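Hey, can you fold this one?
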Amino acid sequence: MGPVLAGVLQLIALMGALAIAYVPLGNYMAKVYSSERHWRVERWIYKGIGANPDTEMRWTAYLRGVLAFSAVGVLFLYLLQRLQGVLPGSLGFASIDPDQAFNTAVSFVTNTNWQSYYGEQAMGHIVQTAGLAVQNFVSAAVGMAVAVALVRGFARSRSGELGNFWADMVRGVTRVLLPLAFVAAIVLVSAGAIQNFSGIHEVGQFMGGSQQWNGGAVASQEAIKELGTNGGGYFNANSSHPFENPTPFTNLFEIFLLLVIPFSLTRTFGVMVGSVKQGYAILATMATIWVAFIGLMWWTEFAHRAPAYEIAGASMEGKEVRFGIGASSIFAVSTTLTSTGAVDSFHSSYTGLGGGITMLGMMLGEIAPGGVGSGLYGILIMAIIAVFIAGLMVGRTPEYLGKKIGTREIKLAACYILVTPALVLVLTAFAMALPTPANSMTNSGAHGFSEILYAYTSASNNNGSAFAGLNADTQWFNSTLGIAMLLGRFVPMVFVLALAGSLGEQKPVPVTAGTLRTEKPLFTGLLVGAILIITGLTYFPALALGPLAEGLAS
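Sure. Predicted structure:
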């Protein structure tokens, strides 16, 4: 079987699995967030944190809950790392330096999971399980809660109430993420991923010396790492490490995990707003971009341009032989079009244009299908922009799901789409202009620029993957990337929740002959075009200096 055919068959199998899970999981999540009943364990949690889950919140109160919970998470994880040296189960590792502890705490709380450290050489069992793994669950649940709040803004009328943050967050963990991650971890263990709490031990003799490995609760963290679109690996090699991702089956299964909730949330959206066709339109937009990006990546990576390419059959540098070009490309596209950031190959080793595709996926806003929650609210913001553009073309006040998109709504949507580009471009410009940050680049020229552009794109969009050639463990990068992750996560949430509150206060407008049918293929095409044009106009000059220049020169 040729490598191209193998990749196509894996893509078909993946799409089939996602299609099977789409309706039941989407309907289940809609039921979870619409239920008025609380499980007993959830009541214990509410009592422990002093929250009343039945109190409806306006957007300002909902936002305060998001920010307060996340701030406590950052502080707890920071202190846990700073105290690691005196904690049990530290495997003898020292406490983490302040700048790196700040970066890591922010990274995992913001669902970015950027890692400027070697996991197997820096973090003990306590930090990995009680700190990082816990944040993998709750940070994902926060994103889902914000998305559900926006959906309620569309679904409700004459009410600025968006539900209860504490109930939404807790339910996301107890009813969605924990059960799915439990099953996924069992599958990974049965397929060869490790799950233990062993210490550091030597493995064989290599060139006169020994190699050391430490164990860990890897399968359980790997499950929520992908399922919650987190991305931080137990080992520095991430999902290319055989302890985390041992076989082609686990590789495809992990891709399924990182896509299944973001895609299925479109069904949840359709059910909650009372029109599953609206969910299908959003799903079609996501799927169109995702499949197109995979096709482009295959085209760049399977190209035979030199003897080395001819011998290997494609560009194999930085990729695992057990996965091959096809599966590695699917993983790379999926992880950067979501906010996952996990990698089973090194994106820096992709062709110039291939590396550009991974960057462009993040620059779109990670909305195809995006992170858990963040992908849905991101593409709904773009849908608002699209109907606004359509309204301008026909001279009609734009409407979406029965809600008018007026001055306030479009200002909030515009602010949302401006946050991450501003962070990416401004911080990249500073890093290139100052003398010290450039010393972290392994490469010069276009590829060196791409390393820094990729880092700030990844941090600002809360992805977490990296071009491996950049040494990001410096005070400059730990600090500025941490700031980019914080602002890139929570400033957009402010605009999303404000928009949800504004929409929820409106009275629905009746559908007329002039109303844009947003469940039709025409709107899907308009939305895809709006996404690509807005992103292209924003980032094309930067891409031209990096991956495009490198790709055209090769």
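The chain has a mean pLDDT of 91. Let me know if you want another pass with a different chain boundary.
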